[in-house]
Amino acid sequence: MRKIAFAAAIAAATTAGIAQADTSVEVPLNGTLAKECAISAYLNGPFDALDMKSTEKQGAESVTVNCNYGGSASVTFASANAGKMVSDNSEVPYQLIVSGSGSPFANGVSLATAQTWNGWPTVANNDQSRSLSVKLDSAATVAGDYSDNITVSVAAN
Length: 157
Description:
Layout: H1 2-19, E1 37-42, E2 58-67, E3 71-79, E4 84-87, E5 90-98, E6 109-110, E7 115-122, E8 128-136, E9 150-156
């Protein structure tokens, strides 16, 4: 008799479980796309023929930032020669000019140390370009081939 009662109890529990079974279930999906920016430069030649006797604004190159979000990015400009055009033992300091609305470098900035523009505007997945120019602080007085390299990097804010 015990076996019959036990089997009936199991059958009742199983039937009750089937009757109350869920007919749907939620499967959550989550993912994250980190903020990212890419940087490129359009270098069409004016910076490779600077007039070392002129203290006027020169050059018309550009830098473009493209981020996957809207807001702003940080763009850093760093000079290999601490903001100087160098030829052997001769140096000519210069100012980097970055055009664009709100540019803190619109009037020129020394690259004696790396300089960062923390508010470079970004529009999601759209290029945001700014023109680059330089202005020598003084004319070169010693003959030579002068050069510097500026490294431009971008970081998402």
